[in-house]
Design brief:
This is Peptidase M14 domain-containing protein. GO terms for molecular function: metallocarboxypeptidase activity; zinc ion binding. By secondary structure, the protein is α/β, with parallel strands linked by helices. It has a single domain (about 15-300), classed as Aminopeptidase (3-Layer(aba) Sandwich). It has nine helices and ten strands.
Length: about 300
């Protein structure tokens, strides 16, 4: 489908339906996500917190909790798959639960939502079926079912979270597929940026907690390379605040890491297209990020 014929006209219902008709299922949410989550039921409580309901089908949504919430322990939220195509975010959240979470249950209660956008996971998409970007939709009322479901669920828990790690990727397709689609949908001009080669973090401009971010970077550095800034000292158009860290206005932009209002938050960004990494290394980088964050919180007497 060519999106260049009417660059000055925003997409309407017809264009959005045409875009949706071109999307294809490429992998199974049930087989590679839900089945793994269900295997965790001996060590964790698994909750279905909602269902995405689309004309193309329904998708159950799952969160994984510590077995028994101790009111004396701080609560940690981990989210993955807000952008479904960002595979290591989903698999990294699951891998953390499989391999590391039980090492930290004496210190923390966990709520983990490994795959917030399962249709995006199956079709390898940034958007949902209605061409909304879930990670610009964490505001009320949310235009995206994916964001609305997890926000309503977290509110229903009625607990305060100390930290929120939101696990993402930045890929070459951000420039080749998703930014051009955004330009077409909104009838705007978008300049491509250099995709950073390596791992980086997005902190919160309003609450940057630089030592927390630094601890995460130092942990990840042990398993993969950290992205350098470009010749302007920027990454994806924003100033590098410290090695491997940029900051966004997470709440204002409707980003997932901002909705939970935590004292400590970070969005991880893995670069799976680097010649220096493979799928397994990307998953390990996500786990290392979570571990680095938790170790920092333990060492700084926040628990």
């Amino acid at each position: 489908m060519s999106h260049n014929s009417e660059p000055s006209k925003k997409w309407g219902t017809l264009e959005k339906q045409q875009w949706l008709s071109e999307q294809k299922i490429q992998r199974s949410y049930q087989d590679s996500v839900v089945a793994k989550i269900q295997q965790l039921n001996n060590d964790f409580d698994i909750h279905q917190y909602g269902t995405l309901e689309y004309q193309i089908g329904n998708y159950p949504l799952f969160a994984v909790h510590s077995k028994s919430r101790d009111k004396n322990k701080p609560n940690i939220m981990i989210t993955g798959g807000v952008h479904g195509y960002e595979t290591s975010g989903v698999q990294g959240a699951i891998r953390f639960l499989e391999k590391k979470a039980l090492d930290y249950t004496e210190y923390f209660n966990f709520v983990v939502a490994p795959c917030i956008s399962p249709w995006g996971y199956e079709t390898i998409n940034r958007w949902n079926p209605e061409t909304d970007d879930p990670n610009r939709s964490f505001s009320l009322p949310s235009p995206a079912q994916e964001a609305a479901n997890i926000m309503a669920y977290v509110e229903s828990l009625d607990i305060t979270f100390l930290a929120h790690l939101d696990l993402h990727e930045t890929t070459d397709t951000d420039n080749s597929v998703f930014r051009p689609a955004l330009a077409a949908r909104d009838a705007i001009t978008m300049d491509n940026w250099d995709i950073p080669d390596g791992f980086y973090l997005v902190g919160d401009t309003e609450n940057p907690v630089p030592e927390f971010q630094k601890a995460i970077i130092q942990s990840v550095e042990k398993v993969t390379h950290i992205a350098p800034g470009d010749e302007k000292g920027e990454m994806i158009g924003d100033k590098v605040e410290q090695h491997g860290v940029i900051n966004y206005q997470t709440r204002k932009l409707g980003l997932c890491a901002g909705f939970s209002g935590t004292q400590y938050s970070s969005t991880t960004e893995v670069y799976p297209d680097s010649p220096k990494v493979d799928d397994e290394n990307c998953i390990q980088a996500q786990v290392a990020a979570v571990v680095g964050a938790l170790d920092f919180l333990i060492k700084t007497d926040t628990v």
